[in-house]
Amino acid sequence: MSRTLRLAAMALMTAATGMAAAPASAQDTAIIVQSTTSTKNAGLYDHLLPLIRKATGVQVNVVAVGTGQAIRNARNCDGDVLLVHAKAAEETFVADGFGVRRNDLMYNDFVIVGPKADPVGIRAMTDAPAALAKISEAKAPFASRGDDSGTHKKEMSLWAAAGADPSGASGTWYRETGSGMGATLNVGRGMGAYVMTDRATWLAFKNKGDFEILVEGDDDLFNQYGVIRVAEDKCPSVKTKPAQAVIDWLVSEAGQAAIAAFKLDGKQLFFPNAKAQS
Amino acid sequence: MLKRVADLATDAVPGRVAITARALTYLQGDRTLLGPVDLDLQGAGRVLILGPNGAGKSLLLRLMHGLIAPTSGTVSCATPSANGPGRATQAMVFQRPVLLRRSVAANVDFVLKQGGRRRSAERDALLARVGLDGFQRQPARKLSGGEQQRLAIARALAVAPDVLFLDEPTANLDPAATAQIETIVRDVSEAGTKIVFITHDIGQARRLADEVLIMAGGRIAEHGPASQVLGAPQTDAARAFLDGRLVF
Amino acid sequence: MQDISSAFELALSMVLGGDADLVEIVALSLRVSLSALLIAVVIGLAVSATLAVTRFPGRGAILVLLNALMGLPPVVVGLIVYLHLSRAGPLGFLGLLYTPTAMIIAQAILITPIIAALSRQILEDLHDEYAEQFRSWSLSWRAKVGALLWDGRYALITVGLAGFGRAIAEVGAVMIVGGNIDHLTRVMTTAIALETSKGDLALALALGIVLLLLALVINGLAMTLRMTAGRLAYA
């Protein structure tokens, strides 16, 4: 038995050390970016990460969750950089001392998608709150993220602007999926429900079926992304140098150009708008 | 783990097997399953235990072997090598052999290994002794009933026991297989191992026994040399059993 | 329906084409789940052998607990491991979150109760059969456990497969503690979840088919092992 145990222990140790040692070479220059499902699902990082690696030598590992969870994870110090889209929450994050400074990075916009048949008739409306009000009056099915993400926060603010509170209808015509954007789109398609989504995820989404964009172009649907370095005062484990290097590159001319150059089917998904560094 | 009590018997003679029971009793709840039993089994030779179902034969054997502890009274088994360091001096063969899920050879090897010995020559000799040479690589549980029981005996002999307990080893066997077992038991006995053997078969007792012990109702009805007990039983219970009548 | 047929085509071309990303993901899935299995087997068998051979007060309660833990939801395990490995957690200083090691830990926690509970039943049944013979041989605890594990090994392989199957198929725990980071912690199931959320159902299904093939191969190997070696011992 002792022989067996020793063998097992050895195997365990090799397994464990092997795991830990695997990314050792990139360890010091690898950072974790807590980010959103929308940027990841759209494929932005597949485009950007090799460029970042080349320009800064930093290996970026992206954890894509809802903005709310991304911020919570960053508050737990489980990330070096936060790249999300919920300006108010981001500013609180910085004000609480967890972030060093918030930079505008890029924007795109939200759209409301739904079945081609458009039972409520919101097609081509340019007033998003009015469209939502119409949906709520008709009690037409609407699928919401319901996950405290940036998109969910935006949707809630639009409901408020529409003077409607759908939370009371949760479970009837208002369906909260509690999942990511793509999963919510899958659900929406499955039950022919209207969905508010960011344009990037929508364009990259491959399970569109007969769904199409019905509402777009309202200023209220503007979707701003920000990037924040996690503060080392609160989180000593943060790799400040490589994290700052990545942010510096993202807001630099080269980084902004790289964001602009990311296209899907010929369409630009994100529009860089970082302010020039002072 | 139950400890076997050795050398308790006051009249133990060095170099001889002496199994001694004094007021040996076993209760299950309030029910007396055995006893009180007083018993002396001395020296080599073959003791055959006879009696109807429920007479307490198996229980007595298990108490003597130390598989279970008595409710009261004592039982001891002093054997010539009892004082040897960690050396097993008794072995038991069960009515239904409990064979490991391994090959024939590995079954014997397992017991040899427990005794710190691991010689394939020794194992092969043991298997040859029970007529299983050549069966080494076969799965033990694929053997016939008689072969399984012979393997169980070979395994029991691997501890070189001074006493071998057998609990109805031939109960499930045909006459040919039974005869083989009887030959092996006689052979083992003549090599100096004391045999304590339970059977239902009076004919088997006549063929094998030096000494016979007839049990009924949890007690010893009669105990003596085979010729005397089987030829001229003194007690009603023993007579009844040998005549094939029910006894309680 | 169109998705399903194109998924099969896609799966076939990915497997035959030896797609580099796919190979990496499959390799990581195997590395994580097999390591978790190894840990779970060592701990689970130690626990189950102890429970099978020994009687002590509180044993019944442990059995109930162990059986209940078999139903642990992976997400809950993921959360618990996350809370411990997070920089803000007690083990945060190890820096293990978002690494394959974190995923191994989570999966090991998930399947150890399965290994322990199922093998406990097997070993106890075997022990019931062997107990009297063991007592006759005055076996030490170690020898008893060794004999039970060895003689139960073929049934225990099935237990291992059950544990492995649960580990390689779960997504909730590895998603949380691994983060589904490309080229670092992305495994089969998190890749499937990602492709599903991208709406690429055909690719997601194709990955699912590959996962199924993987499970088939591993089960086939285990079965072959069991059959060839088992011929010597079983009845």
Question: What can you see in these coordinates?
Answer:
- The complex is a heterotrimer of chains A (278), B (248) and C (235).
- The longest helix of chain A is centred in the N-terminal third of the chain and has 20 residues, at 2-21.
- In chain A, the strands form two sheets. In chain A, strands 1, 2, 3, 4, 5, 6, 7, 8, 9 and 12 form a ten-stranded mixed beta sheet that branches.
- Chain A has 278 residues and is α/β, with parallel strands linked by helices.
- Mean pLDDT of chain A is 88; it is low at 16-27.
- Chain A has helices spanning 2-21, 24-27, 37-41, 44-56, 67-75, 87-95, 128-138, 150-162, 181-191, 199-204, 240-251, 253-261; strands at 30-36, 59-65, 81-84, 99-115, 142-144, 174-176, 194-198, 211-215, 222-230, 263-264, 267-268, 271-272.
- Chain B contains eight helices and nine strands.
- Chain B has helices spanning 57-65, 104-114, 120-129, 145-157, 175-190, 202-208, 226-231, 236-243; strands at residues 18-28, 31-42, 46-50, 72-78, 90-93, 163-167, 194-198, 211-216, 219-225.
- Chain B starts with 17 loop residues before the first strand and ends in a 5-residue tail after the last helix.
- Chain C is an all-alpha fold.
- Chain C has helices at 2-17, 20-53, 59-69, 74-85, 100-136, 141-151, 153-169, 172-178, 188-197, 201-230.
- The model of chain C has no long low-confidence stretch (mean pLDDT 90).
- Chains in contact: A-C, B-C.
- The A-C interface holds A 1, 8, 11-12, 15-16, 19-20, 22-23, 32, 37, 40-41, 45-46, 49, 61-64, 73, 75-78, 179-183, 185-186, 204-208, 235, 237 and C 31, 35, 38-39, 42, 86-89, 92-93, 95-101, 104, 142, 145-146, 179-182, 184-185, 194, 196-201.
